[in-house]
């Protein structure tokens, strides 16, 4: 538990994350608690294996793609800041956020950033195109999952 104390969030870090992601102070501290509970190596980062232990992702047919979205190309660990940036794409779009500061960069949860994020889930080879094969892979995963669910129900 001692190593956790050295990785506690400082107030200025929370403020920076609030500005960057739009999450509230309480949401950030709650998500930090979840992050540290997933950090089995207690090193301040999460690995793909840490994400794979999340039951909802393990059973999701697109779970591997969602997990991959947390990791920049060539990286195999994500820190709390990167974790929060990715989660920010899932925040609802709030109309009043769009008009706050016209010189500020577009929020991570803007429509265009959400579309780009979703697009990247399907663009497996990162060539800025979704090929027929990439789309078929997704449809097959979803189809297999639906068939398994139907069998389970009968």
TrEMBL record:
Places the protein is found: Cell membrane; Cytoplasm; Nucleus
SMART domains recorded: EFh (SM00054)
Cross-referenced Pfam families: EF-hand_6
Signal peptide (UniProt feature, chain positions): none
Every EF-hand domain range: 26-61, 110-145
Gene3D superfamilies for this protein: EF-hand
SUPFAM superfamilies to which the protein is assigned, alphabetical: EF-hand (SSF47473)
Record-linked PROSITE patterns: EF_HAND_1 (PS00018), EF_HAND_2 (PS50222)
Main location: membrane
Molecular function GO labels: calcium ion binding
Any one of the GO CC terms: plasma membrane
Keywords: Calcium, Cell membrane, Cytoplasm, Lipoprotein, Membrane, Metal-binding, Myristate, Nucleus, Phosphoprotein, Protein transport, Repeat, Transport
A GO biological process held by the record: protein transport
Similarity comment text for this entry: Belongs to the calcineurin regulatory subunit family. CHP subfamily.
Protein known as: Calcineurin like EF-hand protein 1
Gene label: CHP1
